[in-house]
Every structure is written in C-alpha cells, then in structure tokens.
Amino acid sequence: MNHATSRMLTRVKAVYLYIREKGTVSTQEIAEEFGTTDRTVQRDLNILTYNGLVKSPVRGKWKTTAKPVNIS
C-alpha cells in the first residue's frame, strides 16, 4: 500500500470515529476538524456511505449507522 492510500485510510477511519463520538456533524465541521477541504471530506464520506457506516438523513449533516464495526 502506498503512502497516500495509507494516509487516506487513516483519515477515513478518523472521520468515522469523529462522527461516532460527536453524534451528528456537518461536512464543514469535519473539514475544519481535520484541516481539509470540503471536497476531501466528501470523498471520505462517500467511502463511509458506500460501506454503510454513515448516513446523511438531513443534507450536509452526518451520523453513523447501526452497522457493527470492528475497529483495529
């Protein structure tokens, strides 16, 4: 795995944990917390959504799903 992929996976995991800890957060809050652009956050959220780990019941607000997750 190359360095960029590893960094991206680490960030995606951190974004998931941040959402799980905070409850419901906006895309902007995530971008500010991680010092990234909204576009980068959206890519990360797309990965998490595709895997059924987060959802956005209200546009731009994110929360985790009930899907069980084994975090290592």
- H/E topology pattern: HEHHEE
| Secondary-structure class | alpha+beta
Give the number of helices. 3
Task: Give the CATH architecture.
Answer: Orthogonal Bundle
Provide the number of structural domains: 1
Q: Estimate what percentage of residues fall within beta strands.
A: 15-25%
Per the CATH scheme, the topology name is Arc Repressor Mutant, subunit A
- Low-pLDDT ranges: none
Radius of gyration: 12 Å
Helix content: 55-70%
Output the strand order for the largest sheet: 1-3-2
Number of strands: 3
Mean pLDDT: 94
Query: What is the CATH superfamily label?
Result: Winged helix-like DNA-binding domain superfamily/Winged helix DNA-binding domain
Q: What is the CATH C level class, in words?
A: Mainly Alpha
Head-to-tail CA distance between termini: 17 Å
Largest sheet: 3 strands, antiparallel
- What is the global morphology? globular
